[in-house]
Amino acid sequence: MYDFFLGGKTNYLVDREAAKGVISRFPAVVTPARANRAFMHRSVRHLAAECGIRQFIDVGTGIPTEPNVHEVAQAVAPDSRIVYVDNDPIVLVHAEELLDSTPSGATRYVEADATDPRAVLDAVERTRCIDFTEPLALNLHALLHFVPDDRHPYVIVRDLVDRLAPGSYLLLSHVTYDFEPEAWHAVAEIYTRRGTPAQIRSRAEVLRFFDGLDVVEPGLVVAHRWRPEPASGPSLVTETEVSLYVGVGRKK
Average pLDDT, stretch 34-60? Predict the structure, then answer.
């Protein structure tokens, strides 16, 4: 469905039907999808170019949509190393698109469930692509609104971040009902009925994921407000249309 919202071609009839159901309830839903993708590009580029980060773990990768994390990071720093994580067998089919690394860098794909942080971290460690004693970036883009409270999302994030070296970063995006509550609760119901439980959260609830971290400027903001750049995602849009909080937190 996310690929469909982005205008991609790697989606199936069942995805398109479900996506059209979401669009019927919230026609602007393509805007948060595109704003999320643009935030990923800007935040990864910022960490690679301005913060010296050379390692990235992307959890909940989804079907590849260019440019991917490794393409953004390696365009700035060719020696960047990226490990993608997902548990969807369809993603595995397309994983070769995630492994086209620069000669001086590296990319890997591992299969693991995001709700099992130990399994995620162990799978990443087995690739020998990531050095957990050095700072890295943990990408949780558009993932946690698919982890309801009964799956303990705050514990999952804490357990993942606890394993990271000081100076590491958490990159996170999450849809919100703060601006259009009825529409987003309806969207969550559509996802849940189709077998993908969803939980939309408020700004305060999203901010909790950054407990114990220093949230870098401009803080937790709606996606198009995070370090905007010309021609980098939707710009002439409202908070209601985007309805997606994003932030980057640094581990002390």
Answer: 96
- CA angle, corner 245, sides to 186 and 114, nearest 5? 80
Residue ranges and CATH numbers for the domains of the chain are 24-251 (3.40.50.150)
Instruction: Say which range, 73-87, 130-144, 201-215, 234-248, has the weakest mean pLDDT.
Output: 234-248
> Could you tell me if 209 and 144 are in contact, meaning their C-beta atoms sit under 8 angstroms apart?
yes
* CB of 105 closer than 8 Å to CB of 79: yes
Q: Helix H segments across the chain?
A: 2-5, 13-25, 30-50, 69-76, 89-93, 117-126, 153-162, 181-193, 203-207, 239-242
**Distance in angstroms (rounded) separating the CA atoms of residues 104 and 51:** 19
Query: pLDDT tens-digit profile of 225-237?
Result: 999 988 676 777 9
CA distance 59 to 141: 8
| Cα angle 127, 104, 113; round to 5 | 25
pLDDT band of residue 7 (cuts 50, 70, 90) is: low
How does strand 81-86 pair with strand 55-59?
parallel
Question: Which amino acid, one-letter code, is at 195?
Answer: G
**Residue 247, CB half-sphere, CA atoms under 13 Å: how many?**
23
The answer to whether the peptide bond before residue 67 is cis (omega within 30 degrees of 0) is yes
Q: Distance between CA atoms of 144 and 1, rounded to whole angstroms?
A: 16
Per the CB < 8 A criterion, the answer to whether 136 and 56 are in contact is: yes
Say if CB 10 and CB 3 are below 8 A apart. Answer: yes
